Amino acid sequence: MKASRGVTSLATQTNQQPAGGHQADRRPVVFWDFKILIDYQCPICRREAKFLRRLDRGRRRLAFEDITRTDFDPSKYGRTMNDVRSAIHGVTAEGTVVSGVEVFRRAYAAVGYGWLMKPTEWPMLRQLSDVGYRWFARNRYRISRLFGDTREHRHCDPERDTCRI
């Protein structure tokens, strides 16, 4: 595993595949460009996922995996639960794992809105956005409460954007 600037290349493929489906180079066939590992118990995170899904317009360029599900296994992405809870992570179709603001850059690019995140690549704004995101990630539940969302979401279904309370 090689890591740099929130990007890790995994030696193994981590994407979904059809039974027996492989590309010519023996990598599994994937049906999305970018997968987001998301905290569906976080109301703001859930809203962002819903917004991105709407931008995707059913093209399935994005996939979402709920890190709060009991069967979620972060080790298949070379991460621990503490890692994925402390910052958003994403996985490219090639199996590269990214985290933090880079997830948003790639997600918006996948749905054709990469230009919205372009300024976060500029040197000064990159540093500010990275620091700002780390602060947000640590405080996302408190921020949700500030905006009036005090409910706990223990049973969320990312495929339907719904939660049973």
Descriptive account of the structure:
This protein has 165 residues and is of the alpha+beta class. The chain has helices at residues 43-56, 81-86, 101-110, 123-146; strands at 2-4, 7-9, 34-38, 62-66, 89-92, 96-99, 155-157, 162-164. The chain has one domain (2-150). The model is unreliable at 1-5, 7-24 and 153-165 (pLDDT under 50). It contains four helices and eight strands; from the N terminus they run βββαβαββααββ. A six-stranded mixed sheet has the order 1-2-6-5-3-4, covered by helices on one side. Strands 7-8 form a two-stranded antiparallel ribbon. It starts with a strand and ends with a strand. The longest helix has 24 residues, at 123-146.
In short:
By secondary structure, this protein is an alpha+beta fold. Helix content is 33%, strand content 18%.
Strand content: 15-25%
Q: Give the SSE string.
A: EEEHEHEEHHEE
Q: Which strand order spans the largest sheet, edge to edge or round the barrel? A: 1-2-6-5-3-4
Rg over CA atoms, rounded to whole Å, is 16 Å
Q: Shape from CA axes?
A: globular
Can you tell me the number of structural domains?
1
Low-confidence stretches: 1-5, 7-24, 153-165
By DSSP, the count of extended strands is: 8
Q: Supply the helix-strand structural class.
A: alpha+beta
DSSP summary: helix tally:
4
Mean pLDDT: 81
Distance, first to last CA: 39 Å
The main pleated sheet reads as: 6 strands, mixed
| Helix proportion | 25-40%
